[in-house]
Design a protein that fits this description.
The structure holds four protein chains of four kinds. Chain A is of the alpha/beta class. Chain A has 13 helices and eleven strands. Chain B has one domain. The chains are: A alpha/beta, B mainly beta, C alpha/beta, D mainly beta. Chains in contact: A-B, A-C, A-D, B-C, B-D, C-D.
């Protein structure tokens, strides 16, 4: 007895390095009430709440969802907490959708957030554990070798990362909610920014943000009611998939993880997509460091192995290109970690609903939302579309 | 490359966005500055035990030996061992010595160091596959100009002085090149 | 709804401290035993979900490391909750209801021994008003115990009798950590640990884990000669601000019980009451009659591995159904302080 | 190769997870903490008219936004308590004391804090207590050093 599921409301906060004007519950509520308003619903209409965030050490609160029960209007209702590392925002949305698909609930509120101003990401992700290796190269010491290896294997020009960062930061100017707004950014300013871990420069890295996003998901009748009252069409979920693989294993390829390929294959099969580049109109992809755009273009089937950078170089992933990627500005503009994946999923839904304002891709009918986490080992994706599946 | 445009506008917010309704607060009699952000220091103290397999690894490392855990199903050798063969979900069965000679499977040049033990920048952080191991471990490459490091390059560990040896990863100060032909990078795929 | 059953489960022998093992070494044998109990391997499983908390052992991304105990190759469909693994089972049950999976492996574990658990758990409280005062979890629970005593719902003798019954029952549980008990009179002669709480009213601090295999329909029948069918499952949460709550009741349990279809006769109930005085709050919210056998395992008073103790309640009921000693049971799991969050599951043998 | 380590072969080291977490306070917690500096206690009126103290931005049952902060007394009564015999780092009092729920006069809900009263024998539910203010107040819940019995009722 599986039900069709649609996104019927999306709301997000203004994202910033420090949202000094709101408390932690206030941050979530800003997104929640905006999503409810978008769906023309109230808290009382919600059957269950599914939340996700990254490691609890970030905010220094153990399992904070219990504290947030009242703030989320959840007293007497089910409240569920997902944590799957960086992919958590995507996984959380998928778990929320499964509650409706299973026929258990009609309207589910899902929220992803992070208040990174509570601490520092560098501390929270890598405080020293006894007997473990000191990472004197910082977080980039972990992943930059894989990016460098991608450059070596693909023969990509050195400036592909600059092009991605410039595109996403320019797109971010069209998104009022984005954390980073850098109107003066230029190719030269990205190129001349401090080199951190070759080939990654400072301007090619994501910020640390306070922010939250909420979505209201509904079944077919809830979607019809919401559309009737709001006049905004639902974004139908055409497919969802999650895949995980070990952090270290012989045969693993961190540059083109099998889990990413299989996750994409699964979500495309559900959505009836056989030609991703031809059938998908817009992509919101989890790109925390510039070079992941060409790498994920390949594992998501938009380009052949070693060819993803050519799409970036040709402008195909710009808003004016044939496969716009991260019209919202993406993770490179906004990165409240636990929300970042759900922002990709929510922005994909906003494109379908025609709600993306100045970063709207005209006529977008099929969109991919993508998130990943851990050592490029946890993947979550959904395809949303204008057509009822 | 898009043209530089220094008059770029930032899109304004849509209208009617929900925000917290205004709060009425009883009048204050003093000029006390309003609290907007508080510090809540928290320290938790744990006893840390690394587990059986990492303990074996570190005790061997204190003897300047690198050991990996052997998968009883596939024969794959995991270093540093964490006790499991991750693809099969079974405990590794004992350990074997690997290296010390090794090949660089991936690397990057680092321009920002963290902590007191970071070498002068730029330096090279690399994934290093010891001979006989199935996967790589992280390490620094020194004793060669940073811009001459290559995928496939052959290296060996440089240990701290014997009186400095302990049950620590830091027993290996860094890795340095050895005079052997490079390993074909194509053979290193899947061993990062 | 699809018919879904618990077909196999396994637990560690719970201990105060398992210093020699890390978390992945702790849980792997349990996962292997649960799979073996169903006669399957990870390749037969469609969905994996686990429950753990980084705060307990101070191990960031604990669940990433324990993925190595599963065998996630080729890549698997997998999720994780930062909740008791009873909620991981709920996610798996939902997943099977969507039709995207017919089987699931669920596990939960923790090592609480590396830290000072009563202090660590204070990090779960209101970060502005409560956590900065560092209330320890035992004294915090005592606020609920006092409310029960003041309301005349329970006496200290009742509390000792509950502790005595659970710990005596635990003598038959090979995985229990604390078994046997002084007499009720002798328990009452013991000093307070945190008035009104004596040591016997508290759960032990445990290192341990549990794993469960779920399967749907005919698959369940082929994997178990007597599956324990999930007839209803639901979870609810109450408010966090205990100063705005009536601590003598947990309305979320009653709501979850109604949604899960708790009514009629039960042979057995396993309820997740970390503190003695919480047991009657749960049994009365479940509306259990006096003839129901409550906590034959000894409950959380016999072993309380955080993030696993709730799922263990479901596993204990399922095991008694599968071995034929019970036909119908109810299991309860809790999360948070003072029974804030609760899950209720009805299990039956007859298909 | 050595056998598996046991007993004294085990490696062990201390691990401290320590950070001075920053928390933004927003439009309700901020004024509450600010008022503590001035030795005043604020609550907020709930949807049903009850006064919630300490105040939240939302109703404790429905989650609806709340808007009217009101002043309550710095005296009240103990609605529940337990005895803290073993003192832990960071607790407000470094000698045995009560952890308590305290309903301040003018409030309809209770605040968790501690009571300094010497021994458990001196504690009883319903007893009257008053705030003992901290000498150095910075705008935190610890500006209330503790509560003390008033000796009345």
């Amino acid at each position: 007895m599986t039900e069709r599921v649609a996104v019927i409301g999306v709301g997000q906060t203004k994202h910033a390095a420090i949202r000094g004007d709101v408390s932690l519950p206030g941050l979530l509520r800003e997104a929640v009430y905006r999503a409810l308003a978008d769906a023309h619903l109230t808290m009382a209409d919600i059957d269950a709440v599914v939340v996700g965030k990254a490691p609890d050490f970030f905010e220094g609160i153990m399992m904070p969802e219990g504290y947030l029960a009242e703030a989320l209007g959840c007293v007497g209702k089910p409240l569920f907490r997902v944590h799957t590392a960086g992919s958590v925002g995507g996984s959380t949305a998928i778990v929320a959708a499964s509650h409706i698909e299973a026929g258990v609930h009609e309207r589910v509120l899902t929220v992803g957030w992070e208040q990174q101003s509570c601490s520092e990401a560098m501390w929270a992700l890598s405080f020293q554990i006894p007997f473990q290796q000191q990472l004197v190269a910082g977080a980039g010491g972990y992943f930059a070798p894989f990016i460098n290896e991608y450059v070596r294997r693909s023969g990509a020009p050195e400036d592909i990362g600059i092009l991605v960062a410039l595109k996403d930061r320019l797109n971010g100017l069209k998104n009022p909610y984005a954390h980073l707004h850098e109107p003066d950014i230029t190719y030269e300013s990205v190129r001349d920014s401090f080199m951190l871990w070759e080939p990654i420069r400072y301007s090619e890295t994501c910020p640390s943000s306070d922010g939250a996003i909420a979505m209201v998901l509904g079944n077919e009748s809830a979607a019809a009611q919401a559309e009737a009252s709001s006049g905004v069409p639902p974004a139908w979920i055409h497919g969802t998939a999650m895949r995980s693989e070990p952090s270290v294993a012989m045969g693993r390829d961190q540059i083109s993880p099998l889990a990413s390929q299989e996750c994409a294959a699964a979500v495309y099969a559900q959505a009836g997509i056989t030609d991703p580049r031809g059938q998908i109109d817009v992509v919101e992809m989890y790109v925390p460091f510039s070079w992941y755009e060409p790498m994920w273009l390949e594992t998501l089937g938009f380009a052949d192995e070693g060819e993803g950078w050519k799409m970036t170089e040709s402008g195909a992933t710009q808003m004016s290109g044939d496969l716009p990627v991260n019209c919202s500005g993406g993770v490179l503009c906004t990165n409240p970690i636990g929300a970042s994946g759900m922002l990709r999923f929510g922005e994909a839904a906003m494109q379908i609903r025609g709600q993306a304002g100045d970063h709207q891709v005209d006529g977008a009918r099929t969109a991919l939302g993508h998130a990943y986490g851990g050592a490029a080992q946890f993947f979550a994706m959904w395809v949303v579309g204008a057509a009822k599946p | 490359m898009p043209p530089a445009d220094n008059d770029r506008q930032i899109t304004p917010f849509p209208g009617d966005l929900w925000t917290q309704p205004p709060i009425t607060v009883p009048a204050r009699s003093t000029a006390t500055e309003e609290v907007q952000r508080i510090r809540t220091p928290a320290a938790l103290h744990y006893r840390y035990n690394p587990g059986i397999a990492p303990t074996v690894f570190l005790r061997e490392l204190a003897q300047k030996r690198i050991v990996g855990g052997v998968c009883p199903t596939s024969g794959e050798v995991y270093v540093p061992p964490r006790g499991m063969s991750p693809k099969f979900g079974v405990p590794t069965s004992g350990t074997v010595e690997v290296g010390p000679k090794a090949s660089i499977t991936a690397f990057c040049v680092v321009h920002i160091g963290f902590g007191v033990n970071a070498p002068p920048v730029p330096f090279v952080s690399a994934l290093i596959l010891p001979d006989g191991a199935s996967v790589s471990l992280y390490g620094l490459i020194q004793e060669i100009p940073y811009d001459e490091v290559r995928t496939g390059m052959r290296v060996e560990p440089v240990w701290v002085d014997d009186d400095q040896l302990s049950t620590s990863f830091e027993n290996i100060k860094w890795w340095r090149p050895i005079d052997e032909p490079d390993t074909d990078p194509a053979l290193l795929k899947g061993h990062m | 709804m699809r018919d879904v059953a618990i077909v196999s489960s396994a637990q560690t022998a719970h201990r105060r401290s398992v210093d020699e093992l890390n978390e992945v070494e702790l849980i792997q044998p349990v996962i292997a035993a649960a799979l073996a109990g169903a006669g399957v391997s990870i390749g037969d499983i469609d969905f994996v979900c686990s429950g753990s908390s980084d705060y307990l052992a101070g191990q960031a991304f604990s669940f990433v490391m324990t993925l190595d105990a599963v065998g996630a190759w080729p890549p698997i469909v997998e999720s994780h909750v930062e909740m008791d693994a009873a909620w991981a089972l709920y996610e798996a049950w939902i997943k099977i209801q969507t039709g995207h999976a017919d089987s699931a492996l669920i596990f939960g574990y923790s090592k609480a021994s590396p830290g000072d658990l009563p202090r660590v758990l204070s990090r779960q409280l209101d970060p502005y008003y409560q956590a900065p005062l560092w209330p320890d979890a035992v004294a915090y629970a005592g606020l609920q115990g006092r409310a029960m005593l003041d309301a005349g719902i329970i006496t200290e003798r009742d509390m000792a009798e509950i502790a005595h019954r659970n710990r005596m029952a635990a003598e038959a549980n090979p995985n229990a950590q604390v078994t046997g008990s002084l007499s009720v009179d002798d328990l009452l002669a013991q000093p307070y640990l945190s008035d009104p709480i004596r040591r016997h009213d508290c759960p032990p601090i445990s290192d341990g884990g549990v794993a469960v295999v779920l399967a749907a329909g005919d698959l369940a029948r082929s994997w178990s000669s007597r599956p324990a069918w999930i007839r209803g499952i639901d979870h609810r949460i109450d408010g966090h601000q205990i100063g705005a709550r009536d601590l003598t009741v947990a309305p979320s349990i009653a709501t979850a019980a109604a949604k899960a279809g708790v009514s009629g006769r039960f042979d057995i109930a396993e309820v997740h009451a970390p503190f003695s005085f919480q047991e009657p709050i749960i049994t009365s919210a479940l509306g259990l009659s006096d003839d129901v056998m409550v906590n034959p395992s000894g409950g959380a008073l016999a072993a309380n591995p955080m993030m696993a103790a709730g799922l263990i309640r479901l596993a204990e009921v399922a095991a008694r159904i599968s071995d034929g000693s019970a036909d119908r049971g109810v299991a309860h799991a809790t999360g948070g302080h003072c029974l804030q969050q609760n899950l209720v599951c009805v299990l039956e043998g007859a298909s | 190769m050595p056998d598996e380590p046991t007993g004294s072969d085990l490696l062990e080291a201390p691990l401290a997870i320590e950070y001075p977490f920053n928390r933004t306070t927003g439009p309700v917690i901020g004024p509450f903490l600010t008022a503590l500096i001035d030795q005043r206690v604020l609550g907020i009126r709930g949807e049903d008219g009850r006064v919630i103290c300490p105040p939240t931005e939302y109703d404790p049952l429905t989650g609806a936004p709340l808007a009217e902060m009101v002043e309550v007394a710095s005296t009240g009564k103990v609605t529940s308590w337990s005895w803290v015999a073993t003192i832990r780092e960071g607790q407000p009092l470094q000698h045995p004391h009560a952890l308590a729920l305290i309903q301040l006069d003018g409030a309809d809900t209770s605040m968790m804090h501690v009571v300094d009263c010497g021994s458990a024998d001196a504690m009883v539910t319903g007893m009257r207590v008053a705030v003992r203010w901290s000498d150095e107040r910075t705008g935190s819940i610890s500006d209330i050093a503790c509560f003390v019995p008033t000796g009345e009722g």
